[in-house]
Design goal:
By secondary structure, the protein is an alpha/beta fold. The chain contains four helices and eight strands. 23% of the residues lie in helices and 25% in strands.
């Protein structure tokens, strides 16, 4: 499986870019999965539901399955967040996994930047950032794409990973 990331600070346009990239790339007949990092507590389960009751009772893992989808929830309890490589190992085989977040990991990625946020640029200190997607003109030693030019960004990513 090929891996490529979208990184950047909060409100840089990462999720919108990821969504557009998934649509663009799967539209070309390439299978894609995504992995999203969350810096906050989240819960995909609902209090009162059977699966939530199983987890709160102490189950380490709970799998929820139907004729439409299945989901496996793993409780970390008091263990550390697993590294990206361990999470990627849990993914089913596809042509490309797009990773949102994990901006400090070494996998190849594109940096999303919105000028109004005035954040420092990750690319300045990170050789794993192969290009920048920005909503304003920017000079860089790496390729720079318009943040909304999904086709060009997809072409670049697919070329980088050899697909």
């Amino acid at each position: 499986m090929k891996i490529f990331g979208v990184a950047g600070f909060k409100n840089a346009g990462k999720t919108g870019l990821m969504e557009r990239l998934v649509t663009e790339i799967t539209g070309r007949g390439i299978t894609v999965s995504t992995l999203k990092h969350a810096h906050h507590r989240f819960d995909i389960d609902q209090p009162g539901k059977d699966s939530h009751r199983h987890r709160t009772a102490g189950a380490q893992q709970v799998m929820l399955a139907s004729s439409n989808r299945w989901a496996l929830m793993t409780e970390l309890r008091d263990t550390a967040e697993p590294p990206l490589a361990d999470l990627l190992a849990q993914m089913a085989p596809v042509d490309l996994i797009l990773v949102e977040g994990w901006k400090r990991d070494a996998h190849p990625k594109i940096e999303a930047i919105r000028a109004e946020n005035n954040h420092p640029h990750l690319a300045a200190d990170d050789p794993s950032i192969k290009a920048i997607a920005c909503d304003t003109a920017l000079t860089s030693d790496r390729p720079v794409f318009d943040l909304n030019d999904t086709k060009a960004i997809a072409d670049f990513i697919l070329s980088e990973v050899g697909l």
